[in-house]
Every structure is written in structure tokens, then in C-alpha cells.
Amino acid sequence: MKKEFVVIGLGRFGGSIVKELIVLGANVMAIDISGARVDEYALIATQAVTADTTDESVLKSLGIRNFEHVIVAIGENIQASILTTLMLKEIGVPKITVKAQNDYHAKVLRKIGADKVVHPERDMGIRIANNMVSNNILDYLELSEEHSIAEIMANERLVGKTLVELDIRAKYGINIVAIKRGNDIVVSPQAIEEIQIDDILIVIGSDHDIHLFEKKLFH
Ligand code: ATP
User: Fold this and answer.
1) Any ligand 1 atom below 6 A from CB of 41
2) In a shared domain, residues 13 and 105
């Protein structure tokens, strides 16, 4: 059975979610208050509707509560984003993901019961900055304010060594949770696993420890 989603707000973020969900084979109802935006998605989304989602009766008449997951991608109009989230919660939508403009917005969204709050611009900024300061950090995913998962390219200092020899956990306090090797992935590598050329280490730890590890081994 196909997954059912609703995307509210068809700016760049909401729009790209609609397109990707369709590529992934999902059914998507795309909604925006602007008819011009909706027209852009008429041939892309499963269904495209012009509506003001701060109006509860509109949400009810569209049968939104029958969808599994609703994404609120209303950007600048924080009031509309909060009101929409509240209405969705009230009508009993099982899963609500909302894009936050700033930390205060995020706080309110969590309080009123958003299941997931995303900060796409902030997160992308963090990822790109990490990639800019180090060519070895290929990707960076924030888990909390202090902890992250990073993808780090192995260098000649690591190649040929086993995890036990490197003793990364004891020395740096970070864990290698997986190793990407070409198209393969070694999940939870054993202590005797030997790092090979072009391996990408997927590590988890505090931001401080990850950066220390990167500094010590790559500079
Ligand atoms: P992006 O950065 O993703 O382009 P943005 O932060 O600039 O987005 P906006 O363009 O402000 O976001 O908002 C996204 C969309 O949300 C707009 O197309 C806007 O018409 C729509 N929108 C705003 N208020 C409502 C509402 N009450 N109901 C439905 N859609 C709305």
C-alpha cells in the first residue's frame, strides 16, 4: 500500500518534499493558500488543493485526519504555521512534522504537540560549515545540541590499522558505528576490522570529541 502524506506550504522546502515523496512512490496531497503555487504542483502531486489550513472546517472537509503524516512547511507566517499545527493536532492527525523558523517557533511547536520539528536552513548551514572547515568530514548530522554523527574519510594514518589498534573510543570518546566501503557497509565493525583505503567512517560522539579526533588524525 502506498504511504499517504499531506504537505502544507509549497515554498522551496515544502515543494521539494512533495517532489521527493512522489519520486519515492508516495501519495501526496499538496496544499497552499496561493492558487499560483498550487497550480505549479497540479501535475506533480497526487492531489493539489488551494486552501487556508488555519481554518479547521477546511481541514475537516479535506479529510486530512485520514492521512498518516502531515508536513507543515509554512515558512515566514509563523502564526499560520502554529495555528495549522494546532488544528492538525486537534483533529487527530497521527504524525505531524513542522518546519521551524527559529528556536522560539520550535519551542511553541513542541509544546502544542508537533511530533517532529525540523530546521532545514540551520541544519544545512551546520553541515556545510563542517564540510568547509574539514575536507575529511563529508557529512554531519546533529543529534542534539552537543552530539552528532559524522562521516569521515579515512586517511593514510588510519589505513591498515584495526579498530583495536586505533583505540578511538578510549582515546577520543567517539564510537565508529559503521564503515562505508564502496557500495558495502560494515555495521557495528568488530575490533579486528582493518581500515581500508577509501573507507568512510561513520562516527558518533560529542561535537567536541569528533572535532578533536578529526584534528589529531588529519592535521
Ligand atoms: P521556503 O524557504 O521553503 O521557500 P519560506 O520559508 O519562504 O519557504 P513561505 O514562502 O513563507 O516559506 O511559505 C511557504 C508557503 O506557505 C507559501 O507558498 C505560502 O503561500 C504558504 N502558506 C502561508 N500561509 C498559509 C496558510 N494559512 N495555509 C496554507 N498555506 C499557507
Assistant:
1) no
2) yes
